[in-house]
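Example: Fluoride-specific ion channel FluC.
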Amino acid sequence: MAVGGVIGALLRELLEVAVPPVHGFPLATLLINWSGSFVLAWFYTVTIWRFKVPQWMRAGIGTGIIGAYTTFSTFVVETNALLMHGQNATALLYVVLSLVGGFLIALLGSHLGGERREIG
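Written out as structure tokens, the predicted fold is:
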């Protein structure tokens, strides 16, 4: 998992450098967390239902790479910074987009990964 963590952290840093804030809005973190939500849901769905992979590999990729790539702590710090600068509406938009968007994107990832549901 440590190697995965290094990879995930480097990927996050690359995106944070490539995507600057837009009028104070932390777009990079939003995109990181959205893409991480999608990939994690898709990856776990695919590796549970379609392709059996060892648990250590799922943990290395899921917890290691994707866990280090996504960042809840940065989300909280950036939300707090927006609030401290009086950007309450922007902070609220950021929280809603992060939470609701992340959930919906994770559902999409599960769906595209071929999630199976019990009938009955």
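DSSP finds five helices and no strands in the chain.
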